[in-house]
Amino acid sequence: MRPLPRRSFLKLLTNSLLTFSGALGLGGLARFFSFQADPPPPKEFDIGPAMNYPQGSVTVLLQIPATLRHTSKGFIAVSMKCTHLGCTVEKPGETFECPCHGSRFDEFGKVTRGPATRDLPQLEVIETEDGNLIVRAS
Amino acid sequence: MTERARHPILRLRSGRAISLLLIFVSGFFLLAIPAAASPVLDSITPTATAYTPPTPTMYLVTLTPTPTLAPTPTFDVSRLDKPIVDEPPSQLDEGLLVYWGVCMACHGDTGQGLTDAWRDSFGEDRDCWTSKCHASNHPPQGFEFPRLVPSLSDKGTLLRFVNAEQLYQYNLANMPWWDPGSLTKEKALAVTAYLLKMNGKLPEGVTLTAANGQFIPIQYTVMEPPAQSNLWKYLLAGALILSGIGIGLQSVQPHAGKRPSFILHLHPPTIPALQARFRYTLGAGGLAVFLCIILLVTGLLEMFYYIPSTERAAATIQEITFLVPYGGLVRNLHFWSAQALVVVAAIHLLRVVFTGAYAKPRRFNYILGLGLFVIVLLLDFTGYVLRWDEGIRWALIAGTNLLGSVPKIGEGLVRFVSGNLEPGPAMLIRFYAWHLFGLAILGGILMIWHLFRVRRDGGIAATRVERIGNPPDEESAPTRISRAELLRREAITMLVAGGILLLISTFLPAPIEQPMSSTLVSLAESRAPWFFLWVQELLKVGDPFLWGVATPLIVVLLLGLIPYVFPRVDESEIGRWLPRSGRAAQLFLATLLVTIITLTILATR
Ligand code: FES
């Protein structure tokens, strides 16, 4: 192999240094933009004493958003955040309807019509010692 | 310049005289009109007193007029009795008791504020700031007592509080006036609940706690437009603006013995007449520049009032729209110019393709223009988000989640574009930064480049060969026109377009809705802004990434490929509508256009 002439070598060197520092700069910029300034949304919601939700009741908890049912088998919370693109679903009757692109779900969150493909998740409901209910949004 | 082309009105001298007259007349009227009846300004004008109480600035607050001695105080003293409540008292009962003990003296038994009628309840201490009661241990002018006490029960009184949490914090820290911070947390909560109840903002059966306060929205309304209509003020202002533009454009016209002005210099000395025919260009490019200037000016004006915080954004937009003198006109102009820019840019693009003007050497400029079009759409979307009211909620959430649906890099992309995964302060400020800085600057640079390339490429595409046997009307036209003539034509287009815009902005208000609340309400508008309706319709088909991200990107890509894929239009046909040799490209774009329009119509059903 012929040794690289001095000129070309220097040129190669400067160019690669330039590329390198450019990449570093871009990386720095990407890091700059990646900071999460807001705290993540709350994961746990204290929704007050369990006796506020008697057997057979269906309550819409808009702050989560979720629907809480008290069935004979205990509390069932169904998330009301559409699994398609995150709009809050409406609940005109028993079932759920998304206003944004028209997904439908049955009362337990199963998809009955697209474009959503995943069911509305069921959220964990915990009863604390002092009788309050905690809903865990995943 | 040919004499034929001159309309008398545009003849310089008479034009200037008319504009000056208009300025004079409208200026006179504008000055003669009393300042806009802004409730804020009226309500906080204190009467000359030794002490100005720290009355918070509130919207639509009615305040008591200057106290005057009422001749015969008649007052049902039973209104002062301690209220009787159940045992054990509910939170609202406790709130009532706190209110009775702490707040009532100033704010009145029904929250009416310190009205004359309420002061009657004090009997001879009715004007206690002059009766000098307590004067021994208080300032010489008597007991320190606020003279202006806002009513608590009027419509819109609590509007500056976004939610119950804020009202609670405010009460805790600032009330009562004579001993701020003396309320315990329980008492502050109770009295906040009572105030909410008084204003019909407390949901049935809810106990206010420190935790749920932020989910009880207060600021939930759109201000009432001012009673007196702004129409004719706006019309006069519009006339003033138009004549201003007119005069401005006249003064840049060439004057004998003077060197050409800057604006004139931006134009080539002469251009072929064929390039300047309105029915060929539709004036779309020039109009787009004009709209950008309007957007820049009105946008800068809005910046003086808009506060990009989640609490204040929607409220300040309401201020601009309803309270700031001529603010409504400025905002409507900004809104309508932005909508018009999308349409005009689309027409410009269609014109370029339908006349075959995209081919070399204008290929690069075509790409620049396409980039500008995309930036205009993004600017429109970010500007729309800045409203931060219920009208934009789903578009924002669906839009950011759409980005998040990109495989692998989705989340990073959302972080980069909108600062956070959930709407919040970080997201708002980032959209603000994009709108005012990132996109606007990039757009400005691209626009200048685009304009520069037009000249660099030898003007806009028009045939270089003088056709033999021109149609009669073209025969008489000169083959080249001077820049003064070009400027004159631009001026006419600008004045006409400006006039139409001003009329629309006077009569059709830009949309506004109640401020976004932290509670997710389902009455939010679920439609995307009109220029993205077709994407929303596509999203109903299936996979978000495929239909919502990939498909629109492919559309842009295909548009960009037009000059590279389709054959060059024949030289003899350049500069005409629908050249035969450009059929393929025309057909392609027409199909695309029809599809997008159909999807849009489907989405509005
Ligand atoms: S967000 Fe619910 S269907 Fe698209």
Short structural summary:
By secondary structure, chain A is α+β, with helices and mostly antiparallel strands.
Task: Outline the structure in words.
The complex is a heterodimer of chains A (138) and B (605). By secondary structure, chain A is of the alpha+beta class. Chain A has two domains: 1-35; 44-136, Rieske [2Fe-2S] iron-sulphur domain (Rieske Iron-sulfur Protein, 3-layer Sandwich). Chain A is 21% helix and 29% strand. Chain A is built from one helix and nine strands; from the N terminus they run αβββββββββ. Chain A has one helix spanning 6-34, and strands at residues 44-49, 58-61, 66-71, 74-79, 96-97, 104-105, 111-113, 122-127, 132-136. In chain A, the strands form two sheets. Chain A has a six-stranded antiparallel sheet, with no helix packed on it. In chain A, strands 5-6-7 form a three-stranded antiparallel sheet, with no helix packed on it. Chain B folds into three domains: 3-36; 82-133 and 143-222, Cytochrome Bc1 Complex, Chain D, domain 2, CATH 1.10.760; 229-522, Up-down Bundle (Cytochrome Bc1 Complex, Chain C). In chain B, strands 1-2 form a two-stranded antiparallel ribbon. In chain B, helix 12 (313-323) packs across helix 13 (327-354), helix 13 (327-354) packs across helix 19 (483-507) and helix 14 runs antiparallel to helix 17 (425-456). Chain A binds chain B through residues 30, 33-34, 36-38, 40-41, 46, 48, 62-63, 65, 84-88, 90, 99-102, 114-115, 117, and chain B through 207, 211-212, 215, 394, 397-398, 401-402, 405, 412, 415-416, 419-422, 424-427, 518-522, 524, 526, 536, 539-544, 548.
